[in-house]
Design brief:
Blueprint (H helix, E strand, L loop, with lengths): L1 E16 L3 H10 L2 E16 L3 E6 L5 H8 L7 E6 L8 H5 L2 E5 L11 H11 L4 H15 L14 H13 L5 E5 L7 H18 L2 E5 L3 H7 L2 E6 L2 E7 H8 L3 E7 L5 H7 L6 E6 L2 E6 L5 H9 L4 E8 L2 H10 L3 H9 L1
Parallel strand pairs: 3-7, 3-8, 5-6, 6-7
Antiparallel strand pairs: 1-2, 1-4, 8-9, 10-12, 10-13, 11-12
């Protein structure tokens, strides 16, 4: 069974138009005008059980709106969606027992009471037995090292501590699907790494399906094998992260520092059998650009055997650069066509 099945999903909002000036404000009091804004535009995708999928896009692309429809917070304008076989906004009571949700900028914990008391309240909300709750809580507290935090009020936790507690809160009822909306926003690199490691371990051991939205593409690289990219409410890419890099990356660059004067003609001769391009920086340094069709090891072996090298630096286009170039192109279809040609 599919964990998530979405077909032609659309969401429109009526947004009030505010007229200018005092006269406009008076008119708005008696007769309001509205614009129709389409946040999600007929998207379709499927996520099998056990997959970790990154759902990325610029601000306003429709990521959070999609998550809210998938979790039953919003009702779609049109289209079909099923999560764990349920329609989220119709089968709410049965549906919520199978999902966990973490919104990075909103808390599901009670601000002025102890963390353990929030967990107890959530146990009752999800109707988890005391025995199952204790077993699950002990496992999660040990993995995320929360033993010293359980009796603290939530308002006295640091952001990193609170986010680890938010994860535990979302997993107390052992859901099969976890929705994460900006779960590492504002966290330092140590806490981010801890959370990423925990999510990977949980996915591997329990087969938990994870849908992750984030602006931190290091989260995507660390966790996701698949990426769905949105632009203006439409899906412009759905596939593997490695394929995304191969299709849109500008290639790799190797910087060489030589022991002595090295002519360009010598370097070109050494790599004549490869599809690479050389640029001389000085008499003793040069850059070699190579596409993804050329292995770095093959390129290095050609050069290392022919000249004396002092230093080598390999620079690879990262995911941030790739995504930035896709959006700055101004047209997703043009980007795709260019990548495929």
């Amino acid at each position: 069974m599919l964990a998530i099945d979405v077909k032609d999903l659309r969401k429109q909002f009526s947004v009030q138009k505010n007229r200018e000036g005092l006269s406009g404000a008076l008119k708005d009091l008696f007769k309001r005008e509205y614009n129709e804004v389409t946040a999600v535009k007929d998207i379709s995708f499927q996520i099998p059980q056990g997959e970790i999928c990154g759902y990325i896009g610029e601000n306003g692309a429709g990521k959070s709106t999609t998550i809210k429809m998938l979790t039953g917070i919003l009702v779609p304008t049109s289209g079909e969606l099923k999560v764990n076989g349920y329609v989220p906004f119709k089968d709410r009571e049965k549906f919520v027992n199978g999902i966990g949700v973490v919104f990075g900028q909103r808390s599901q914990l009670w601000w002025d009471i102890g963390v353990i008391e929030s967990f107890q309240l959530l146990r009752k909300v999800y109707r988890v037995s005391e025995a199952d709750f204790r077993k699950r809580l002990n496992e999660l507290v040990e993995r995320l090292q929360l033993g010293d935090l359980l009796n603290r009020p939530v308002r006295k936790l640091s952001l990193g501590q609170r986010m680890r507690c938010e994860l535990v809160a979302s997993l107390l009822h052992n859901p099969s699907i976890l929705f994460l909306d900006e779960p590492t926003i504002g966290l330092d690199i140590v806490v981010k790494t801890e959370i990423r490691d925990f999510l990977l371990q949980m996915n591997k051991e329990q087969g938990t399906t994870i849908l992750l939205t984030t602006h931190d593409l290091q989260d995507i690289e660390a966790l996701c094998s698949r990426v769905i990219m949105l632009d203006d409410g439409r899906i412009i890419y759905d596939g593997g992260l490695d394929d995304l890099k191969n299709r849109w990356s500008k290639g790799r660059e190797i910087q060489f520092q030589f022991a002595g004067h090295t002519p360009l003609s010598v370097l070109q001769h050494l790599t004549a059998a490869l599809d690479v391009t050389w640029t001389m920086e000085s008499d003793v340094s040069a850059k070699m650009w190579l596409p993804h069709t050329v292995n770095v090891s093959d390129a290095l072996s050609c050069v290392v055997g022919g000249v004396e090298i002092r230093d080598i630096k390999i620079i690879e286009t990262n995911t941030d650069d790739i995504v930035r170039s896709i959006y700055s192109s101004g047209s997703a279809s043009t980007t795709k066509e260019t990548a495929q040609s």
